[in-house]
């Protein structure tokens, strides 16, 4: 059962605000006292609202609750909210938090995604759970600070870490950092940690580095533009399974990326890893890589020469598709699987390989020029 108050829909007990009509023309709305939950999509797309006043007693802000409220400039958030749901404040170009309530315990995935006015934010003392990509595509965000008494998270110079500083979680998109040396005690880098860092030109991984979480993004995540030009560093693998590393789409669409040195220990270059890195000229692939994934280098228009090491067994579909400057690639006998369209629109390409190898057969079947190794 539902109840209606001036067109606003609540549950029967009026403890959950279910829907605020998009057609309403008021610019300010005070949520009635007694409401404890803001339901999912409750204010979604209410672009006439500028100010929303929440009463004390609200503990849950549901997913997408205030998303796409394009003209919203302020929400009074009481110090009793404990849970901020997925995409709650997605796509806010005018709204910026002064501070999160001290009562917050949980912040779900992409809660503040595309909030472009965020400059700095402080994670409160009692937060114990931060979802993936909470600050995804926050164009102006320079610093993420953490309350010094928080028992789960910490920060160093505005960069978000786990409390023990063993996991690097996020460098803000507009951080002033240009050259970043990952601290020596870091053994895990979170998903999207470096994505879209506008000012970052160089990243150095520490020696004796063991990666415990793969740098992989969902394929539907949007491509970003970054000044990141090179990534260097050695990775020494620990016990089997612990050190397995995949380069995911963390560099997707990095238009300024020119040179990549993939460190030893990487075993897989994942799908769309370097998609549309249009100025990528040089890439070093170590002999720990066993697979180059689907569309990994698709659209790297300036990439001219690639050497595939003897550890690689598989080239995924479209891996080098539309690499228009690619003239030479060396494919060893270790490659036993070459999927369709790997070299589509590579019109000047010569494949260097051994006679009767999988690469030789593939080149003949697809009309690609062959250069046999001596």
Strand order of the largest sheet: 1-2-3-5-7-9-10-12
Instruction: Give the assembly state of these chains.
Output: single chain
Under CATH, the topology of the domain at 1-139 can be stated as Leucine-rich repeat, LRR (right-handed beta-alpha superhelix)
Decide which structural class fits the backbone.
mainly beta
The total beta strand count reads: 31
Report the CATH superfamily of the domain at 1-139: Ribonuclease Inhibitor
Mean pLDDT: 84
Low-confidence stretches: 208-244
Question: What's the arrangement of secondary structure elements?
Answer:
Blueprint: E1 2-5, E2 8-11, E3 16-19, E4 28-30, E5 37-38, E6 51-53, E7 60-61, E8 74-76, E9 83-84, E10 106-107, E11 120-123, E12 129-130, E13 143-146, E14 153-156, E15 159-162, E16 167-170, E17 179-181, E18 188-189, E19 202-204, E20 230-232, E21 245-247, E22 259-261, E23 266-269, E24 282-284, E25 291-292, E26 305-307, E27 314-315, E28 328-330, E29 337-338, E30 350-353, H1 358-365, E31 369-372
Parallel strand pairs: 3-5, 4-6, 5-7, 6-8, 7-9, 9-10, 10-12, 11-13, 16-18, 17-19, 19-20, 21-23, 22-24, 23-25, 25-27, 26-28, 27-29, 28-30, 30-31
Antiparallel strand pairs: 1-2, 2-3, 14-15, 15-16
Description:
- The relative contact order is 0.06.
- 2% of the residues lie in helices and 25% in strands.
- It has one helix at residues 358-365; strands at residues 2-5, 8-11, 16-19, 28-30, 37-38, 51-53, 60-61, 74-76, 83-84, 106-107, 120-123, 129-130, 143-146, 153-156, 159-162, 167-170, 179-181, 188-189, 202-204, 230-232, 245-247, 259-261, 266-269, 282-284, 291-292, 305-307, 314-315, 328-330, 337-338, 350-353, 369-372.
- A hairpin with a 4-residue loop joins strand 2 (8-11) and strand 3 (16-19).
- The model is unreliable at 208-244 (pLDDT under 50).
- It has a domain at 1-139: Ribonuclease Inhibitor (Leucine-rich repeat, LRR (right-handed beta-alpha superhelix), Alpha-Beta Horseshoe), CATH 3.80.10.10.
- It has an eight-stranded mixed sheet, with no helix packed on it. A five-stranded parallel sheet has the order 21-23-25-27-29, covered by helices on one side. Strands 14-15-16-18 form a four-stranded mixed sheet, with no helix packed on it.
């Amino acid at each position: 059962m539902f109840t209606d108050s001036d067109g606003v829909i609540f549950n029967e007990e009026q403890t959950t605000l279910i829907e605020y009509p998009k057609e309403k023309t008021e610019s300010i709305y005070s949520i009635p006292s007694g409401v404890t939950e803001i339901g999912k999509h409750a204010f979604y797309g209410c672009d006439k609202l500028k100010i929303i006043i929440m009463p004390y007693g609200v503990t849950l802000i549901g997913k997408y609750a205030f998303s796409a409220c394009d003209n919203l400039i302020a929400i009074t958030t009481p110090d009793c909210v404990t849970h901020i749901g997925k995409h709650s404040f997605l796509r806010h170009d005018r709204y910026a938090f002064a501070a999160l309530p001290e009562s917050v315990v949980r912040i779900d995935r992409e809660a503040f995604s595309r909030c472009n006015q965020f400059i700095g934010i402080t994670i409160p003392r009692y937060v114990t759970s931060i979802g993936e990509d909470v600050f995804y595509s926050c164009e102006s965000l320079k610093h993420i600070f953490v309350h010094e008494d928080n028992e789960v998270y910490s920060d160093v110079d505005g960069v978000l870490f786990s409390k023990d500083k063993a996991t690097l979680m996020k460098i803000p998109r507009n951080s002033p950092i240009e050259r970043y040396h990952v601290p020596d005690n870091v053994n895990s880098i979170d998903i999207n940690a470096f994505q879209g860092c506008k000012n970052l030109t160089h990243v150095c991984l520490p020696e004796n580095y063991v990666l415990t979480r793969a740098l992989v993004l969902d394929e539907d995540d949007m491509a970003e533009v970054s000044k990141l030009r090179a990534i260097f560093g050695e990775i020494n693998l620990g016990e089997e399974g612990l050190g397995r590393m995949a380069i995911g789409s963390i560099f997707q669409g990095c238009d300024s990326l020119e040179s990549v040195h993939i460190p030893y220990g990487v075993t897989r270059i994942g799908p769309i890893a370097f998609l549309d890195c249009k100025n990528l000229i040089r890439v070093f692939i170590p002999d720990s890589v066993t697979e180059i994934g689907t569309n990994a280098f698709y659209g790297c228009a300036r990439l001219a020469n690639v050497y595939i090491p003897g550890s690689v067994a598989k080239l995924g579909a479209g891996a080098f598709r539309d690499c228009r400057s690619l003239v030479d690639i060396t494919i060893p006998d270790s490659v036993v699987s070459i999927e369709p369209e790997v070299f589509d629109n590579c019109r000047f390409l010569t494949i260097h390989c051994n006679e009767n190898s999988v690469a030789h057969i593939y080149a003949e079947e697809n009309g690609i020029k062959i250069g046999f190794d001596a």
